[in-house]
Amino acid sequence: MRAAFHPQHWPLAVRAPLIVALLMIGIAAAMSKVVLDRLARDQAQSFRQLTGAYLDGLSTALHSPVIRQEPWEAFDVLDRARHKYSGVNPRIVLVILPNDTVLAALDPATYPVGLSAPEKAREDLGEPDLADPGGRVWVHRTLREGGKQIGRIAAEIDISNIQQVRRETFWTLLGVNGALTLLFAGLGWLVVHRTLRPLLRLSTYLARAGDGRLEPIPERKLPPPDTEAGKAYRRYNAAAIAISEREALLHRLADQERRALLGRYASAIAHEVNNPLGGLFNAVRMIQRHGDDPERRDRAATLLERGLTGIRNIVRASLVVWRGDGEDRNLTSADVDDLRFLIESEAHRRELSLVWNNSLGEGAPVPAQAFRQLALNLVLNACAASPPDGRVVFDVRSDETAVFLSISDQGPGLPEEARSSLLSAGSREARSNTGLGLWIVSRILEEQSATIDIQGPPGTAITIRIPYAQPGLRHAA
Amino acid sequence: MHPAKARPRHISRRQIFAGGAAVSALAIPTLSQAARPVLFGLTPVFLDSDIQLIADLERYLSRFIGRSVQLVKRRTYQEITSLLVANQLDAAWICGFPFVQNREQLRLVAVPLYRQAPLYRAYIVTRAERESEGIGALRGDIHAFSDPDSNSGFLATRSLLAGLRESPATFFARTFFTFGHRNVIRAVASGLAHSGSVDGYVWDVMREIEPALVSGTRIQHVSEPMGFPPIAAARGVDPGLRAAIGEALIGMSGDPSGRTILGMLRLDGFVAGEPRLFDSIAEHWKRAQEFG
Hints:
The complex is a heterodimer. In chain A, strands 6-8-9-11-10 form a 5-stranded mixed beta sheet, with helices on one face. In chain A, 58% of the residues lie in helices and 15% in strands. Chain A contains 12 helices and 11 strands. In chain A, a hairpin with a 2-residue loop joins β3 (136-145) and β4 (148-158). By secondary structure, chain A is α+β, with helices and mostly antiparallel strands. Chain A is rod-shaped and about 170 Å long. Chain B is of the alpha/beta class. Chain B contains 13 helices and 13 strands. In chain B, the strands form 3 sheets. In chain B, strands 2-1-3-12-4-13 form a 6-stranded mixed beta sheet, sandwiched between helices. A 5-stranded mixed beta sheet of chain B has the order 8-7-9-6-10. In chain B, β1 (38-42), α3 and β2 (69-73) form a beta-alpha-beta unit. The termini of chain B are far apart. Chain A binds chain B through residues 70-72, 75-76, 79, 104-105, 107-110, 112-114, and chain B through 127, 142, 144, 173-174, 176-178, 183, 186-187, 190-193.
């Protein structure tokens, strides 16, 4: 689930506007910082100049009253200067004597003559901090006469108007940049969405191909052929048609192969039926000639029965194998034994020894039809590959989860192409050189979610594990 | 008040002055002396910033005396008094205290009429919101005086404290001079001084003109009536000129432009006055001097 939230999995129509928005935020933040820094510098410089002019004016006028320590004249200077410096907004102005007492203040009621000057007014702390949260800063000017300090001016300046300008600038920048970011993100989404729309449609068609339905895009939905999207759509259509044709061809070939197999086994069955026929006729003749002799008649009857049973078994097995698709019955032990009748004749014809181990017991929940096709193809392949007098071992077992089918022979081993065709079951690739028998095996393996293990040479030992079909499991695979 | 009536008096007085001046010119002063402007000193008794008033007064006196009159202003009482005594000024509006101090060198020209009497009072004022009564409550104050040569702005309070066997230096924590009655009011209203000594006439008039400033103060102590700051001339000044200046001032209430000036000054007019009007100030001086 966490992987789904990874930005890599987000649609491009979301990622692109997000990237635009992030870029805009980055640019806006950088620009805002530059603007605010510049504003702060300008304000600081302007503040320095204004307060400098204010203090210069005061110090010139206060020089004489401070030397004579005249409170009235000092106050008179402060009072007359009160409204003359519109850019400066002093809250407290103190004229302080070298003994740190107040000679005069702009507000004498709060800072009377002779009062000990407040701490902040005593010491010049250098460059004032215009970001001071209190909105007020102290500025100082020392008054000198002949190199000797005669007093000083300390003023607390209200800088709330400066801070107000900063705040307003900040919020304006934030508002404008925020609006621009949203606008560009929206435009980005729109542009990307429009640009990607044909690609997304193509992606939808390709996704359907994953479900096995590679269908061409209808002509009326095709963009103009001279556009990139138009070209891509047409290439997709060409590929879809080619793949569909190839699938159809393969199915046709598989059908033909099955029919050829049918022909081969029809002749094999005929041979198997023909073999006991001589014996059966002999038995019939024996009954005709020595029907009165109960012993001979019984022996002839036994021979007849054995021969007919053999014919019946072969016929039944053939019926079961070739009954056709569509049957969804579970595998039984009898199905495996039926196969034996079909194989034995082939083994016998090739003079092979067949070792048949059927440990299936009461059966297993795997489709009988698919299993039989799978086993028949593989065991016939093993017979075909085995040298005369060779041994083919057929083994079927089951446990709680799966059926295990093992077939081994003493042949030269599977050709590399056949091996990779089987091992890549599920790739849906039909290799032209491997024959349809193995292609069918591959398809069944894929349909049954079966796994395959191939050993050899020397010889070939194939083990297939077919898991039990569970509701939903097969569809999930 | 009645221009129709005032005009004949006005004209006749001008004729008299003109005649007197002509006689004087023949008798004593040289031509050059008669040609130089009459120098009239003003102490910062009142609205020291009222340029309009000064211009009007200058124009009025020039017209009435028939000679160019130049008003001379200085920052302190001391400067004006010194110039007057040294015959550098023909006449000056000074305070009663310098008049008493220099009685021998000076001649009384006229005394203003305030509220129909040539009298005024000295006030001791404090901040309006201060709750205190009597002069004793002001002990330990920072006190603002107007001028060392002002009666109401210094001497009256000095004399009052002498009655308590105190001096400003012992009674108050700190004192300073503001060289202007208006400045005393500013100093007290702003809180720079806890209390101040001020001319009662100035305080009353300013309460009308600048109520916002004066409302920051209230009267804590009122003196007895004393002689209003007079117009005096140096002893050596030509008596004719002295008389002309006196007539010009006394005739002010009978002249429309003169009444405008009186209106600005909130005065009723001028009278010849008597030097004994200032005897009580002399008493204060004596008392203050006795105590040191």
